[in-house]
Amino acid sequence: MTDKPNILFLMPDQLRADFLGCYGADFIDTPNIDRLAQKGVRYSNACTPSPICVPARSVLLAGVNAIRTGVLGNGQFLRPDLAECGMKVWPEHLNEAGYDTSAIGKMHFYPWEMSMGFEHRVICEDKRWLNIEDDYDRHLKANGLKKFHGNEHEGYQENRGAIVSRLPYEHSWDYFVGEEATKYISNHNGEKPFAMMVGFPGPHCPYDPSPGFENIHAPEDMPEPVPESPDQPTNFRQGNINGNKGSWNDVDYTEFTTAHKKKIRAHYAGLVKQIDNKIGDILDALEKSGQLDNTVIIFCSDHGDYLGDHGLIGKGTFYESSIKVPLIVNLPWATEAKVWDGPVSIEDITATILHYGGCDIPSYFDSIPLPGLGIDAKIRDRVYGFLGSGCMNYDGEWKLSKYTTGVVQLFNVKEDPGEQNNRVDDPESFEIFRKLDAELTAQTMRSINAAHAEKLVNTSWEDLEFGRGGWKRTYPQPI
C-alpha cells in the first residue's frame, strides 16, 4: 500500500440532493450512497456554481470559475493552450504527484476522446450523444445492441420522456460504467495510488430506467413539485419548452401536468437506484482488494434537475432544484459522520483533490479546500455562480440571481425554500439586495480581469529592450 491515499471521485449526471436517503428522502432507498455519508463530511448546502453540464465540469477540471474558464454554456470548452498559460487540469497535477489517473464514463470533453490529463480512459458519453462511437458503443455492438434515442421508446412523448429502456439492466449506461470502474479497482496493482473519476451518465434524461426499475417507486409516493411562483418570468417556462423541442430531446412540455411530473420523478428515482447499486459494487471491489481503508471518496453531481419544479425540466437557472447537489467526502480515517451546513461550492472539490494528492494548490485557483475536513483553509461564506445566461450570489440564506434577460430575483431560501416570493422590490430587503449585488459585481469584475491574464504585456518604462525596439511580446503570458 502506498503512503498516499487513492482518490475516487464519483459523479452522477444531473442528480439533485433531495433524491437520496442521506439527504432526507424517505421515498427512496439509497443504502450505498448513504454509506458514504457515515464517515467523513456530508455537505447539506452544496451548490454547483454553473448549473449546466460542460461549464460545471470545466470549473472542476481547471479550479477556476466559469468566467475564467470561458466555458459559460454547453457549446464551449476549455482553451487548448492552458499549459502555455501556466494552467493545468487536476489530473495533470496528480500525474506529477505519482498517481495513476483514470476517467471512466461520461466526461463531456470536446473532442470526446481527448485525455485531458487522464492516463487511462473508458468512455461512456452523454445519453443524448447517440453517434459517439465510444467504448460503450462498442460494448453494445458486440452484444448485438445499440444506443436508442428516447423517441424510439413507447410512450416517450405521452409521458414527457419517462420511459422504460429498451436495453436490459446489464447493458445499461450506468451498469457499464459501474462495471468498468469495478474492473479498474480490482486490477489495480497498488504500486502507485490511483485517482479515478467515475462519471455516471444517469440519472440525466431521458428518464429511462431499465426493465424492473421503473416500478420500484410509485408516482404517488413522489414529493410534490414546486409550483410556478406568481411572478415567475414567463420566458423561463417558454424558453424551457422551446429548448426541449430540439432534436436532442424532442419532447413538448407545453402541457405538463402533476401526473407527468410525478411519473418522471418515479423513473428518475429508478435511475438513482441503478446508480446506487453500482456504487455498492464499487465499494465492494475496494473492500475485497484491500483498498477501501486507503481511499478518499468524493461524491457529488454537476447540477440538479427541476423534475417539474416551477413548471420546468432539466436545469439552467439558479433555482434551488437546479443548483443544489449532493456532496459527500468519505474519509477512510474518519471515526464519525459530520454534517456541514454552511454554503459550499462544488468548485472546491478540485483543491480538495489536490490537497489529498499531496499537491500544492495553485495561487491562481478560485477553488479552495472544502471545510470540515481538518484542512487549514479559508472557509467560503458565499457561492458565486456564472453562466452565459446569468449570475448568482448565495450566502446560505439569501440568494440573488441576475439574468441577461433583465430578470432579477432575490429569495430568502431558508424562509421560502420553494422560491415563491421574489423580494427584489421589497423595501425591507433593500440593504440585503444592495450588499449581495455589490459583492456579485466585484466578483464578476475580478473574474473578468483574471480571465484575461494571458494578455498581460509584462513590461515597464524601465525596460531597455522595449525602448530600443524589436521587443517581442510573450503571448500567452503564463499566469
Any key phrases for this structure?
479 residues, alpha/beta, Alkaline Phosphatase, subunit A, 12 helices, globular
Can you tell me about this structure?
This protein is α/β, with parallel strands linked by helices and 479 residues long. It has a single domain, classed as Alkaline Phosphatase, subunit A, CATH 3.40.720.10. It has 12 helices and 14 strands. The radius of gyration is 22 Å and the shape is globular. The two termini are 36 Å apart. The mean pLDDT is 97.
CATH topology, anyone?
Alkaline Phosphatase, subunit A
Whole-number tally of structural domains: 1
Spans where pLDDT lies below 50 across 5 or more residues: none
Q: What is the residue-mean pLDDT, rounded to a whole number?
A: 97
The biggest sheet, with number of strands, parallel, antiparallel or mixed sense and barrel status, is: 8 strands, mixed
Oligomeric state as shown? single chain
What percentage of amino acids are in beta strands? 5-15%
How large is the radius of gyration?
A: 22 Å
* SSE pattern: EHEEHHHEEHHEHHEHEEEHEEEEHH
